[in-house]
Amino acid sequence: MYDAVQFFQIQSLRRHWVAGTAFVGACCFAAVAFAAESPPWAAAVGYTANTFSSNFTAATVDLANSGKSGFAWYPWSLYGHHANTSALRINADGSITLMGDTTGPNGELVSATAAHNSAKFVGTAFGGGAYIDAEIKFDPEDVANAGSKGWPSFWALPIEGSVLQDGAQWQGQPPGYKHAVEADFFEYLYLPYKVPRNIYGAGLHDWYGIPNVTCGHGMCAQHMQSQEPKRITPEGTDFTQYHHFGFLWVPATDATPGYVRFYFDGQSMGPDRQWSKFVNQPPPPTNQPWAFGRLDQQHLVLILGTGPNEPMTIRSVNVWQASTSNNLHQ
User: CA 202, CA 270: separation in Å to the nearest integer?
Assistant: First the structure.
């Protein structure tokens, strides 16, 4: 966390950053772009390296499903489901419009995917903490008309256990006992449930257990408290225009708690979620101070997706970190 002096510095810089200098000329994913300006709240925790900066072109999106390295984005291909690439429309301005996932998991593009190489993946998964941001627009009317068959979303799964199937083992537990934290940066899922249009969801899920055994069906879960994931934007927010959706992740240390904080257009969307350092304590994580701390051991695969007949357009995705040293990249 930052102190009072840092807080006031951040407030003074916030308006300048949101005004638009941060993403001017967002580069392709050919190299790390250290010159791009770090948001002040990310810089305050040492995240000044722009380790991922992508728009959407034939050079950054593997529309041919080649599975080759060098792309920023790959079509979703997880858990036996495969994105329909004809539902991905690259626009002339470097944005992309997702026309909707028809397979079920609400994912169409991922920053890393399985591959037949020695690493067993291509792309990038992010570890060690980060500030992650995407510019997104969509029409809430489309979501209202579609009901709850998927929804506009920007989220992440650990590469351990998703792309790399054998990487989610909970140390000290029986073989096949998995442990992974899902991070949801933005989900426009409340409108189908008749809540105000200016609310979206963002939170964490701590998944664990032997699938279909420990808890009978699927995986066990420690979710954030029922009201925690609701992020309330200003009344009258127009989601048909671009907005920044951000996620700040600071890992725990022996002396300080870890936490995540969510942002909308540069304003924090509370509450935060904190945890103490996770060192493979035994399950369950329910109500434990280290619940969600497994996140600090993971590497996040970024995911963009939406439901059928609910088009979502993304203009840029950026990640700031202290360095690339904790990332996985092929």
Answer: 10
The answer to whether the beta carbons of residues 77 and 165 sit under 8 Å apart is no
**SS3 label, residue 25:** coil
Contact 207, 231 (CB under 8 A): no
State the Cα–Cα distance between residues 21 and 38, nearest whole angstrom: 10
Q: Which pLDDT tens digit goes with each residue over 234-257? A: 999 999 999 999 999 999 999 999
Q: Quote the CA–CA distance of 36 and 297 in Å, as a whole number.
A: 27
Tell me the β-bridge partners of 136: 243, 314
Distance CA 271, CA 224 (A): 11
pLDDT > 60? residue 122 = yes
Question: Which among 91, 81, 17 has a CA at the least distance from the CA of 312?
Answer: 91
Residue showing tokens 């409108």: 191
Q: Which residues of 143-157 are buried (b: 16+ CB within 10 A; e: fewer)?
A: beebeebbbbbbbbb
Residue for token pair 């940066």: 185
